[in-house]
Specification:
Elements lengths: L1 E4 L5 E25 L5 E28 L2 E23 L12 E23 L2 E16 L15 E15 L5 E11 L10
Antiparallel strand pairs: 1-2, 2-3, 3-4, 4-5, 5-6, 6-7, 7-8
């Protein structure tokens, strides 16, 4: 990360850009239940899958760094602008409880889009000259928009969108040049709390 602006002395404010290269791992399961008019669930079916894909994205950040001798602390906020599609998978049902116009089978597509991914973090830092070794911890939020195509008579489902929350852990090294430029190299992992979505139809 190379900020466009850095302060002078022991207290710095940095505004910058970050390039991120990593992997996104997602997994989920669907529990189907056919409910008759009396409200009784007659059958259940569980479908599971997982998806892993490499991503290269950019982000912007704003951070405040304080230092006293060898010790320091950085507090910051980071935003990945735009949106991205994740985890598209399909399956075909051949025994539909409600039937479909085209016959007795239907292909369903599960898909989601994420956007507004924001992270708020703290970085306790040990400084040796112009270099700093830091640990990183924080909270990440993002909006999950469901883009599924699972419509077939009474075998149709519509799932709501959801805001997800996760935790960030990692560490890295930072170097501030005499010109004021700051360079950071870090490794982090973000794990989101599992969510449950209930279909509003079908």
């Amino acid at each position: 990360a190379i900020p466009a602006k850095a302060g002078e002395g022991e207290w710095d404010i940095a505004v910058g850009f970050k390039g991120i290269s990593g992997d996104v791992d997602t997994s989920g399961s669907e529990l189907e239940g056919y409910v008759d008019k009396g409200g009784k669930t007659n059958s259940r079916e569980v479908n599971k899958t997982s998806v892993s894909q490499a991503v290269d994205v950019g982000s912007i950040f704003l951070e405040f760094a304080g230092r006293s001798g060898f010790a320091g602390l950085t507090a910051g906020a980071e935003l990945i602008p735009g949106s991205a599609s994740i985890g598209s998978k399909t399956r075909t049902d051949t025994d539909l409880s409600g039937g479909s116009e085209g016959g007795s089978s239907k292909t369903y597509t599960a898909k989601a889009e994420v956007e507004n991914l924001a992270t708020f973090y703290l970085e306790p830092t040990l400084y040796i000259g112009d270099f700093g070794l830091y640990a990183k911890g924080g909270v990440t939020t993002m909006d999950l928009n469901t883009l599924e195509d699972i419509s077939s008579g009474t075998d149709s489902s519509v799932y709501p969108n959801k805001t997800m929350v996760g935790g960030v852990l990692g560490g890295g090294i930072r170097y501030k040049h005499s010109s004021g430029f700051l360079v950071k190299l870090e490794y982090t992992e973000t794990n989101f709390k599992p969510i449950e979505l209930l279909s509003s139809t079908g």
